[in-house]
């Protein structure tokens, strides 16, 4: 019973932090459009938080550049467990048009674990909301299963 | 049995559980009104409770640069200060836990205490954003504290007493005569309460587009939940205090009247939040000293003239 309430609370109150890992800003504009009143993501409990310490979901846009790699890792480690990552846009998935560049890691999943990929250049707000909704189901499942995200508690930062 | 009854008062009603749940309810009212003003549907009614439960089950992180003792102790103390303030408020036909002449000052003191605790919360979190937020919180404290207290003293002047329950009785008996006089003070107290609770347009201390989250930047999990609950409890105390002093509907309607007048106050705060953008910290101080304080002084002068 208690576990179910906890799982429900995880699912119903995702706070997101938005991080531009070297993108061209198109995806960022779409992420900003997602949280405008028109789409009303507060129905799902989604709130945009400034601090990664408060966030459950990290939304990453952009191929990870060599310079931003350390920052991305630091932001990721600053988030409290259980934490999830959504990669938004073609660049965040595979490096996109920057694939193979000397200064680009080629996708967010080369640096930190990614849970959901939202393709598009840039993806529409509906697609981003659908991606976050997929993570929400995963959050609920993980909270209910015994070997969920709780085990990988990392200390530091 | 006396001891158990006291414990019940402290922890369940009108203490901790009641204040926290009522605070979360008022948060939902606030968020719903805000959403409707933006032509949205808004969150379901159980949203604040689920947010709190989620925060309590998240990982706890103590940053290396933070002071571990203060980092753990201050959020709890913050909540305790806010809940204690509510114990001194009479509401819905119940008298306060310990009524005495001068409890108005005690409630204002506890509200001030939780602002100073917010300063310490940011200061000891070891983050530059936290420190900047703390300093802004204290600067803003200089702005709204004087008009808030002056406007709360206007009904006290009319009633000729510092005791909340006496003020309430006098205000309820002469509501038609006194309410027009106190309207100015009511407006000033709503604006300064908005500043006290660090809400838009006076949210420079927590400005998330400039300084991440101000004093709360480094807080995670249950410590953040405690601070958030303390903020909700402050909202309850502020709304309860204004409803006791200015809108004592519960003398007529009982408990329902208290809820109605609190929701009316929160409605006013939500309208303010929805219709303005954030002010810079120096503008907050300027507006307070140029407009709020003269108007609250005018309100007091009106009260003195009416009382004769």
Automatic annotation (TrEMBL), chain A:
Sorted UniProt keywords: 4Fe-4S, Iron, Iron-sulfur, Metal-binding, NAD
CC cofactor: [4Fe-4S] cluster
SUPFAM superfamilies hit by this protein: HydA/Nqo6-like (SSF56770)
Cited Pfam families: Oxidored_q6
Transmembrane segments: none
One of the record's GO molecular function terms: metal ion binding
Superkingdom to which the source organism belongs: Bacteria
Domain named NADH:ubiquinone oxidoreductase-like 20kDa subunit: residues: 24-134
Gene3D superfamilies found in the cross-reference section: 3.40.50.12280
Family listed: Belongs to the complex I 20 kDa subunit family.
Protein name: NADH-quinone oxidoreductase subunit B family protein
Source species: Candidatus Fermentithermobacillus carboniphilus
High-level lineage: Bacteria, Bacillati, Bacillota, Candidatus Fermentithermobacillia, Candidatus Fermentithermobacillales
């Amino acid at each position: 019973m208690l576990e179910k309430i906890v799982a429900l609370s995880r699912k119903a109150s995702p706070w997101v932090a938005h991080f531009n890992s070297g993108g061209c800003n198109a995806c960022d504009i779409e992420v900003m459009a997602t949280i405008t009143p028109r789409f009303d993501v507060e129905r799902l409990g989604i709130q945009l938080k400034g601090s990664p310490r408060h966030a459950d979901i990290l939304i990453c846009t952009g191929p990870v550049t060599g310079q931003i790699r350390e920052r991305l890792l630091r932001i990721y480690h600053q988030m409290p467990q259980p934490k999830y990552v959504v990669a938004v846009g073609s660049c965040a998935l595979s490096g996109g048009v920057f694939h193979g560049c000397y200064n680009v890691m080629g996708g967010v999943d080369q640096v930190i674990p990614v849970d959901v990929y939202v393709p598009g250049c840039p993806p529409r707000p509906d697609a981003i909301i659908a991606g976050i909704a997929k993570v929400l189901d995963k959050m609920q499942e993980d909270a209910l299963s015994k070997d969920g995200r709780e085990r990988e508690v990392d200390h530091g930062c | 049995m006396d001891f158990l009854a006291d414990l019940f008062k402290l922890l369940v009603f009108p203490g901790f559980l009641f204040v926290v749940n009522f605070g979360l309810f008022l948060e939902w009212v606030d968020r719903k009104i805000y959403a409707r003003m933006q032509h949205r549907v808004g969150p379901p009614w159980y949203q604040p409770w689920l947010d709190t439960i989620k925060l309590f089950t998240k990982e706890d992180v103590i940053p290396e640069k933070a002071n571990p003792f203060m980092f753990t102790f201050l959020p709890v103390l913050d909540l305790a200060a806010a809940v204690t303030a509510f114990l001194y408020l009479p509401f819905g036909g119940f008298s306060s836990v310990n009524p005495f002449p001068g409890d108005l000052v005690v409630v204002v003191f506890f509200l001030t205490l939780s602002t100073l605790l917010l300063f310490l919360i940011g200061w000891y979190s070891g983050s530059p954003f936290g420190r900047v937020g703390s300093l802004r919180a204290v600067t803003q404290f200089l702005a709204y504290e004087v008009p808030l207290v002056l406007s709360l003293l206007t009904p006290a002047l009319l009633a000729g007493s510092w005791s909340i329950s006496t003020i309430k009785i006098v205000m309820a008996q002469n509501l038609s005569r006194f309410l027009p006089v106190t309207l100015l003070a009511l407006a000033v107290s709503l604006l300064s309460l908005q500043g006290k609770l660090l809400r838009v347009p006076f949210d420079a201390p927590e400005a998330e587009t400039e300084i991440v989250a101000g004093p709360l930047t480094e807080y995670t999990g249950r410590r953040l939940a405690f601070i958030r609950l303390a903020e909700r409890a402050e909202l309850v105390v502020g709304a309860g205090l204004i409803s006791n002093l200015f809108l004592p509907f519960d003398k007529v309607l009982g408990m329902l009247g208290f809820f109605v007048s609190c929701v009316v106050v929160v409605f006013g705060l939500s309208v303010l939040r929805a219709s303005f953008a954030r002010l810079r910290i120096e503008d907050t101080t300027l507006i307070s000293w140029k407009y709020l304080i003269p108007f609250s002084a005018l309100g007091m002068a009106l009260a003195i003239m009416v009382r004769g």
